[in-house]
Amino acid sequence: MTESRIDFRRAKFLISAPDIAHLDQYLPGDLGIEIAFAGRSNAGKSSALNALTEQKSLARTSKTPGRTQLINVFELDEQRRLVDLPGYGFAQVPLAMKHKWQQALGEYLQKRACLSGVVVLMDIRHPLKDLDMQMIEWAVASEIPVLALLTKSDKLAQSAKMKTVNEVRKALVDFGDWVQVEPFSSLKGTGKPKVLNILNEWCHPQWLTEEEQASLEE
Ligand SMILES: Nc1nc2c(ncn2[C@@H]2O[C@H](COP(=O)(O)OP(=O)(O)OP(=O)(O)O)[C@@H](O)[C@H]2O)c(=O)[nH]1
Ligand SMILES: [Mg+2]
């Protein structure tokens, strides 16, 4: 099957939803294909989205953790979307809200029919915290492929970077092909071609029939 390549530079803002639990009311999840960007607050989600789409201010970035409160949805084409999820694990958020937030994330991963991949972004200097592991486990349990992206890789020297990448790969080996691990730097563009290849694959999910694939290309 010949697949058309998705031009991620075409991404444009579609909607903001106030919370995950209500996203389905704004955008029915049985339509099209969605790729979510999840990660701890300040992990570099918005920066990665901007780097991958080659747009400086598609997603808002900030030095203050917890900046992205809304769920921001960006459209690639009529059928495909990228979703910038609010960061989890933000220290200043009350515990009850954190629990509510985790629950909503879990439900999103389990119930969102259009979700065809989750990018779990982690600062390469602090990978695989409990909530990251939970995200990965939830996604794989729902048979959604995961890209564990080790962000801000420019902060480490090459040898330290590869050491962490190998350690994280080893820690996630039991998930098999469901989880891929790559280093990434929004600042330097490191890892960008690999990530775009993976996202492109997710945009053409195998669970669609050839006819459905063809209708997506129209
Ligand atoms: N050196 C370096 N800094 C980065 C990189 N990516 C992000 N940052 C910085 O990390 C901080 C947080 O980045 P954001 O992209 O806003 O992080 P986020 O995950 O969207 O954060 P929330 O929306 O608050 O959850 C900002 O100060 C960015 O400039 C990177 O690749 N290299
Ligand atoms: Mg953000």
Automatic annotation (TrEMBL):
<keyword id="KW-0547">Nucleotide-binding</keyword>
<dbReference type="GO" id="GO:0046872">
    <property type="term" value="F:metal ion binding"/>
</dbReference>
<keyword id="KW-0342">GTP-binding</keyword>
<comment type="similarity">
    <text>Belongs to the TRAFAC class TrmE-Era-EngA-EngB-Septin-like GTPase superfamily. EngB GTPase family.</text>
</comment>
<dbReference type="InterPro" id="IPR027417">
    <property type="entry name" value="P-loop_NTPase"/>
</dbReference>
<protein>
    <recommendedName>
        <fullName>Probable GTP-binding protein EngB</fullName>
    </recommendedName>
</protein>
<keyword id="KW-0460">Magnesium</keyword>
<keyword id="KW-0479">Metal-binding</keyword>
<dbReference type="GO" id="GO:0005525">
    <property type="term" value="F:GTP binding"/>
</dbReference>
<keyword id="KW-0131">Cell cycle</keyword>
<dbReference type="InterPro" id="IPR006073">
    <property type="entry name" value="GTP-bd"/>
</dbReference>
<comment type="function">
    <text>Necessary for normal cell division and for the maintenance of normal septation.</text>
</comment>
<keyword id="KW-0132">Cell division</keyword>
<dbReference type="InterPro" id="IPR019987">
    <property type="entry name" value="GTP-bd_ribosome_bio_YsxC"/>
</dbReference>
<feature type="domain" description="EngB-type G">
    <location>
        <begin position="31"/>
        <end position="205"/>
    </location>
</feature>
<dbReference type="InterPro" id="IPR030393">
    <property type="entry name" value="G_ENGB_dom"/>
</dbReference>
<keyword id="KW-0717">Septation</keyword>
<dbReference type="GO" id="GO:0005829">
    <property type="term" value="C:cytosol"/>
</dbReference>
<dbReference type="Pfam" id="PF01926">
    <property type="entry name" value="MMR_HSR1"/>
</dbReference>
<dbReference type="GO" id="GO:0000917">
    <property type="term" value="P:division septum assembly"/>
</dbReference>
